[in-house]
Write the structure tokens for this entry.
Amino acid sequence: MVSIQAGAALAKQLFPVLGSQGTTIVRLAAAAIILSVIWRPWRTRLNKRQLGAIALYGATLGAMNSLFYMALERIPLGVAVAIEFVGPLGVALAGSRRAIDFVWALLAAAGILLILPVTALAAPLDTLGALYALGAGGFWAAYIVTGKIAGTAASSGAVTSIGMSVGALVAAPFALPFQFQALLTYPVWLLALGVAVFSSALPYSLEMIGLRNIPTKTFGILMSVEPAIAAVSGLLFLGEVLTLTQWTAIVLVMIASAGSAATAGGR
């Protein structure tokens, strides 16, 4: 989580040069190359159904990253991550009829309402940026569902590297206007490489190791800390100071996420 949010802070520093979409394609393409070298997916034989499942997973990955970076162009990192968390929370709570899960849903809804510029308590926030973050959350939910299906098609390394390549292809048409020649300058491509490593290659690899060695419930509870890590990264690397209301909203979303994971049972 520290790696991925530090990578997001680095990515935001590339926006003035490459734009959000240019940064997205650079991140995904570089990460796809790194992961392909590590996992060598060409050695995996896949049928059409398996390829289709991985392609759908990759498409949601590309859309999720594109919308998230578009949100980061307009709103603070911690706020964007908190709003985006509606995706995994929605998946965790979908179809539940238990009273405790409605409590977590209400807490999350309260947190999002405090963030969005729809009440007098909310701090000023770019509406389009908030909508992009909500869209990214929707695709995060789709990413979880399609990733679970794609995960049965091949090894996790092969699925991730192929999916990342598909995600780069999905994001590519939206990145055409950015200045490719900017990548030829040393500071820019060094930053781009850092974004690819810290936002994709390193955290995805660590995540796979973590999931193999700790219970899923523990993993879910730990993941709930991510909005706070994002907010701290935004403060340290980007100078983004959040209001007390925004911090309260982030804490509510974190409690809802941790509570949902802790009471998930065998779901």
In short: The longest helix spans residues 2-39. The chain has a mean pLDDT of 88. The radius of gyration is 18 Å.
